[in-house]
TrEMBL record:
<dbReference type="InterPro" id="IPR004873">
    <property type="entry name" value="BURP_dom"/>
</dbReference>
<dbReference type="Pfam" id="PF03181">
    <property type="entry name" value="BURP"/>
</dbReference>
<protein>
    <recommendedName>
        <fullName>BURP domain-containing protein</fullName>
    </recommendedName>
</protein>
<feature type="domain" description="BURP">
    <location>
        <begin position="14"/>
        <end position="231"/>
    </location>
</feature>
<dbReference type="InterPro" id="IPR044816">
    <property type="entry name" value="BURP"/>
</dbReference>
Length: 232
């Protein structure tokens, strides 16, 4: 039995820092999403016209024609609470519903006149099995950056990105992996070197059988996530 067989596929993005080396094999979940059916970011004008607060959830559901208690309403509730949860010590976080608001928040973190670039996970093959064993085919390339902000998509009727960065020591990598079916992925990966302030119930600790502060936590980013780095 594989070590993580009891773990949901969605958690098979987490891995140990010591495993980040060429030749290592690990089971990874890279979800395949159709961009044509995925929610898109609104314009700032559209975003500003719709409240984004759990205190106004009933009005939002009415505005977007969802019924209370529905699957969509429950997902929206979870997303709003996730966005409103206070940051942990040393963390900067925000939720963006438009590209303009994302850039405004990034400038607050990186500096008002800063320039930044984005790193994403790219599928190098036409067809990728979502869950399979992958081998790290090249030495992982670390991308030095004084600050890193990772943005993850959250379920909502339109695109919502949950973005966060910590002052603690984080490392970001480009990692080329090859699956058992021959599919290749150039994956963005981040390693959080200090997890002492993390919630003990974080899924990473269950996936890696670890606890806060015991060891670094690394994870791959899905293809629809964004990693922002300052241009130096």
């Amino acid at each position: 039995m594989k070590r993580h067989d009891h773990i949901e596929p969605e958690l098979k993005v987490f891995f140990h820092y010591k495993d980040l080396k060429a030749g290592n094999k690990m089971e990874i979940y890279f979800p395949t999403r159709d961009p044509s059916t995925s929610p898109h970011l609104l314009s700032k004008h559209e975003s500003d016209a719709i409240p984004f607060s759990s205190s106004q959830l009933s009005y939002i559901l009415h505005l977007l024609s969802f019924s209370e208690g529905s699957k969509q309403a429950n997902a929206m509730t979870d997303t709003l609470h996730h966005c409103e949860f206070p940051p942990i010590k040393g963390e900067a976080k925000f939720c963006a519903t438009s590209l303009e608001s994302m850039f405004d928040s990034l400038h607050k973190i990186f500096g008002p006149s800063s320039k930044f670039r984005v790193l994403t996970t790219t599928y190098l093959s036409d067809s990728i099995s979502p869950l399979q064993n992958y081998t790290i085919s090249e030495a992982p390339m670390e991308i030095p950056a004084p600050k890193i902000v990772g943005c993850h998509t959250l379920p909502y009727p339109y695109a919502v990105f949950y973005c966060h960065g910590q002052e603690s020591d984080n490392k970001v990598y480009k990692v080329v992996v090859e699956g058992e079916d021959g599919g290749r992925v150039e994956a963005a990966a981040m390693c959080h070197m200090d997890t002492s302030q993390w919630d003990p119930t974080h899924n990473a600790f269950r996936a890696l059988r670890s606890v806060p502060g015991a060891s670094p936590v690394c994870h791959f980013f899905p293809s629809d996530n964004l990693v922002w780095l300052p241009v130096t």
